[in-house]
Amino acid sequence: MNENLEKLMRILTDSYAIKILAASYHKEKSAIQLSQELNVPIAACYRRLHSLQSMNLISVSVKTNYKGKKIKYYNSNIKKASIQIENNHIYIELCDKDGNVKKYSGKIVGKGYGE
Question: What domains appear along the chain, each with residue ranges and CATH number?
């Protein structure tokens, strides 16, 4: 399995990442808001946000608060995600907010398994 597919699968099966995607779908939220709302430790929240952003699953905007401090806000790009495993292959399908669909697939091979 290629590295990007494996990374995408890890993200989409991580409970914190899934919670962050769901909580930030309708309204953008800061890392602190997500951490508090989801009861996710702030360090874990930032790690997941970084991973989600690196795979373009979440968008980031920067706003300045009333004190002049810049704060990042996160908004999920994913409307629907599905993972299917069949005959030593994995298939991932992502649908974004605009209805665009991206499909990923690869062979699952582990030590002592596969062809």
Answer: 3-77 (1.10.10.10)
